[in-house]
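Researcher: Go.
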Amino acid sequence: MQVPLLDLRAQYAPLKREFLAAIEEVCDSQACVLGPKTDAFEKSVAAYCGTDHAIGCSSGTDAQLMLLMALGIGPGDAVLTTPYTFFATAGCIARVGARVVFADIDPATFNLCPRATAEVLKRTPNVKAIAPVHLFGCCADMAAFVAMGKEYGIPVLEDAAQALGAQHPLGSAGAIGEAGWFSFYPTKNLGAFGDAGMVVCRDTALAARLRAFRNHGMEVRYFHKWIGGNFRIDAIQSAVLGVKLPHLDEWSAARRSRAAFYRRKFAGVPITLPVEPWESSGIVNHHIYNQFIIRTPRRDALREHLTKAGIATEIYYPLCLHQQECFRDLGYREGDFPEAERAARETLALPVYPELPDEQADYVAEKVAEFFG
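Model: Structure:
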């Protein structure tokens, strides 16, 4: 049996007619950038997240980049985040000229650890923002980070690239802090037919700046108040995402169902399973499982075993950001963030997408258990 990590065709097939109809509308209108489809999608996402403003853009990376630019974060400033995440989280901070500052992760959730963050904040000057990541679809401890933000008078900016629809007792991922951003890369739980992203926020003035920054800093055509960029979202991507959004909760429920299946099957297997820290709050989407991550010190051997059995897996992420060559000048060394480094050595993503057939999920569980005998 061959089991892919993700099969996008399984989601595309039942909605094909709707996708083609929505794309045809864009083609007929020739409103190819921003336009009515984008306006409608932005309003839908804002309502879905329970926030006031949603600003579509060209990618999740550009969403973060234009947010940092709109907030005026740059040289001389520092932004505190996690070393265990996708590269863009730190890369965008560096691109605006600010200094990337890391704190270690909580080994249970893989998210930025509040206790470690508090310690770093005490000894780091000029921190202008905290950027927790809702990794793999599980919200970080936002109550702790919001409290820190208030104590230090700095915004909390949520990297919710993998977590649209995930919920915390304080609200929806991305809509709790000053602002948050999403990625609609095709492999995300809400994926476009290419690159796309979005920033959400409540502040009207910030939203206006973001709309200007995504369009070369223009509020009035050809009059540039700021130096922005070309971060506009294509109308075709807005159209596709507008078709998909009404199905997102259903897909999240399917992901949680497959995660629950794995939990039952892995009872007694010597691996560490994902935690669900907000489950007791009664929240439905307490974890939307953009990835189902297990951990074991025997990760590499297990992955080889599953590959031979025809099961696709992925390692998110094999090297922490402070260990990347391009960040050597930050002065960090191996061992500075032991929990993040251990996660990079031990974690493995298993197939968990909504349309994953039961027999394939069962086969994955069988082969994992087989490895441990």
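Model: The chain has a mean pLDDT of 97.
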